[in-house]
Prior knowledge:
This protein is α/β, with parallel strands linked by helices.
Amino acid sequence: MAKLAHIDSFIVDLPTIRPHILAMATMHAQSMVLLRLTDSDGIEGIGEGTTIGGLSYGEESPEGIKLAIDTYITPLLQGQDLSRVGAVMARIGKHVAGNHIAKCAVETALLDMQGKRLGVPVSELIGGGRRREAFPVAWTLASGDTARDIEEAEAMLEARRHAIFKLKIGKRSVKADVAHVAAIKRALGDRASVRVDVNQGWSEAQADRGMALLQDAGVDLVEQPIAKLNVAAMARLSAKHVIPLMADEALHGPLEAFDIAARAGARIYAVKIAQSGGLLPAHAVGMIADAAGIGLYGGTMLEGTVGTAASAHVFATFPDLEWGTELFGPLLLTDDIVTRPLIYADFQLQVPTAPGIGVAFDEDKLAAFRRDATKTQHGSAALQGA
Ligand code: MUC
Ligand code: MG
């Protein structure tokens, strides 16, 4: 039986390459909770639990994720057979409500261990195995400046790294936001797909107007335009507009996936392992969407390489990844904490092939970036500003 021998969770803060402006926060750094589990056979599993902008995006903060793992989840792992990943996660689910990002970090580490035990990539442990070796990745233009965003998009096209661009809007007036988006779409034309993410920034009336204008501007989809709990309004907007509405913050695992599908609240799902509560529930979200005829998109919480690799394994198993993915998190950061970075080439991310999630910690980098190892105790709030 593979029992827990050691567990270590810690926060790592990595600066972003430029300020990343979202409706609810401006990021200057990303703070990720990383996890290392070792079992009684000496097999190691690593995981990541990451959110955006401290407590401004969702109900879990980096500090809270670490606390949930250390205080409440670790005792539930003790004495268990860690090779029974589904059973262990069910036990955690019975005793820990919510805390999806903490659960995702733990499930990632358990699956990483299991893949290493069996000598297979994690994608082979999910839903019949992987169906693709690589997939398209969007880049988010969020500098806040139209000319700078166009320049950034042109550079990405030139480098053959991204041909899908997501624009973060919802902070300014609908008119100003639409003008910004339309200028970028005009500049890029048919060379790129342009999408927007409002991060719940609009009322239903603003969304109604905004969606009509964005459709005319040639935008391909509108992500979470209104409050996540207002599924009735999401359904009204979806029924009224040709431009598809994509659910993001509204999705917190299979239950919401089923509810939104039943109420016709969205035509595309942004699936996130963090929001879903792990890789296995994220796969279930994908299966529900597929059964309901809802398009699939691989979302991100702007995780670093560990969480991005874990997400890639799930998205590689989806029957149809119609809208591609946005697994660009590591590219937004100035440094990395793994020995070998993920490979982005020809507009695609390659799904790792080594056993487990297929990436390993670089111990020197961890020592340099661990929050508990750095002298100045810079909290995520201080780094991320408002
Ligand atoms: C979100 O809401 O989708 C994903 C890409 C990005 O720039 O922000 C995230 C969060
Ligand atoms: Mg979003």
